[in-house]
Design a protein that fits this description.
The chain is an alpha/beta fold and 335 residues long. It contains ten helices and 14 strands. The chain has helices at residues 11-22, 55-65, 79-84, 86-107, 140-159, 187-196, 222-236, 257-268, 293-299, 307-321, and strands at residues 2-6, 26-31, 47-49, 69-72, 111-117, 162-168, 170-172, 202-204, 216-217, 219-221, 244-249, 255-256, 276-278, 287-288. It has a seven-stranded parallel sheet with strand order 3-2-1-4-5-6-11, sandwiched between helices. A three-stranded mixed sheet has the order 12-9-14. Strands 7-10 form a two-stranded parallel ribbon. Strand 1, helix 1 and strand 2 form a beta-alpha-beta unit. The chain is globular and about 55 Å long. The two termini are 34 Å apart. The structure holds nicotinamide-adenine-dinucleotide. Nicotinamide-adenine-dinucleotide is lined by residues 6-7, 9-13, 31-36, 51-52, 73-75, 77, 92, 96, 115, 117, 168, 170-171. This is UDP-glucose 4-epimerase. Its EC number is 5.1.3.2. Its cofactor is NAD(+).
């Protein structure tokens, strides 16, 4: 197999590339480097610089590298930005995917794996979110992921592709510091940012119906997520044409924002200023925790890493890019 990994120079994509190449699969990466970094790629993995909406570049890449399967990660992913710029999000995430699927179908590629998100569920009012929980996304980002799933499954059924949609929950951590997420919009980097600026980390609301009153989420280590891609890629080889496998990638365990803040203080060694509670943000669900039953049953996948390892490895990555953030008494390497 040769896999085309779109967005392979991104945070998650680079981990997926390593999981695939580490297991002996051939990989070519297509990435426009809008947020990706070429030095995240292991030596020997070809990088084609360009957009997934460039049909002729896709045709050249698929034919030139003998691509037999696609892992499609390239997308815009900022929820707030998607509210302000919905047309950009639909163009990049939905139109781009349409062009990619057209090229894939025309070239006779038969395996397609799509990065989806727990954002498709919106505000699920259940203890554990199963793949059958109704999808009611709350913002254009989540809508483009749900529309993406529809497109992938419809194209798969019509054109005989085996497809998989992986709905990632909250992705965190890094397999190596240089592969860490460079974004600052998720809760762990937001806490790091506040603490290293000497500011109090903000907890949005502590009056939710959860054990400690703060929001509960399901965090998955990016290395575990990459392993899930490898398992799904292998499974696609066994799926009959036109079949789809849609699975949550989460651990089934919830961690509250308060617990996370405590862990961040412990790992970084920065305990002051203590977190402050500020009003709830509109649209934040109280708890979103995956049922990990289907992924365990279908792919034999189970997470290897816990949230402490996610925070510790994310902190290593943060410090690599910001050496000035080295904290007195930090215990970031205790994994
Ligand atoms: N990070 C998360 O917590 C999370 C959660 C759920 C789903 N996802 C999904 O996972 C995927 C990867 O996310 P990430 O966190 O690695 O983000 P990222 O921004 O680090 O990676 C995206 C990569 O795609 C590239 N890219 C973007 N648009 C492109 C285009 N039109 N053509 C070619 N390349 C393009 C970027 O340069 C980057 O390398 C996305 O589809 C995202 O929606 C991420």
């Amino acid at each position: 197999m040769t896999w085309l990994v779109t967005g392979g120079a991104g945070y998650i994509g680079a981990h997926v590339v390593r999981a695939l190449t580490g297991a002996g699969e051939r990989v070519v990466v297509l990435d426009d480097l809008s947020t990706g970094l070429p030095d995240r790629l292991p030596p020997g993995v070809p990088l084609v610089r360009g957009a997934v909406s460039d049909r002729s570049l896709l045709e050249e890449t698929i034919a030139g590298h003998g691509v037999t399967g696609v892992v499609h990660l390239a997308a815009r992913k900022q929820v707030g930005e998607s509210v302000e710029r919905p047309l950009t999000y639909y163009r990049e995430n939905v139109h781009g995917l349409t062009v990619l699927l057209e090229a894939v179908v025309a070239a006779g590629v038969r395996r397609f794996l799509f990065s989806s998100s727990a954002a498709v569920y919106g505000m699920p009012d259940v203890d554990l979110v199963t793949e059958d929980t109704p999808c009611t996304p709350l913002n254009p980002y989540g809508e483009t992921k749900l529309a993406g799933e529809w497109l992938v499954r419809a194209a798969g059924r019509a054109h005989g592709l085996a497809t998989a949609c992986l709905r990632y929950f909250n992705v965190a951590g890094a397999a190596r510091p240089e592969l860490a997420d460079t974004g600052v919009s998720n809760v762990i980097p937001m806490f790091f940012g506040a603490l290293t600026r000497g500011e109090a980390p903000r907890i949005f609301g502590d009056d939710y119906p959860t054990p400690d009153g703060t929001c509960v989420r399901d965090y998955v280590h990016v290395a575990d997520l990459a392993d899930a891609h490898l398992a799904a890629a292998r499974r696609l080889a066994e799926l009959p044409p036109g079949e789809d496998l849609t699975v949550n990638v989460g651990t089934g365990r919830g961690v509250s924002v308060r617990e996370l803040a405590d862990l961040v203080a412990e790992v970084t060694g920065i305990r002051e200023p203590a977190p402050v509670v500020v009003p709830r943000r509109p649209g934040d669900p109280a708890g979103v925790v995956a049922s990990a039953e289907r992924i365990g049953r279908e792919l034999g996948w189970a997470p290897r890493y816990g949230v402490r390892q996610m925070v510790a490895s994310a902190w290593e990555g943060w410090r690599l890019r910001r050496p000035e953030a080295a904290a007195p008494g930090g215990t970031g390497s205790d994994g």
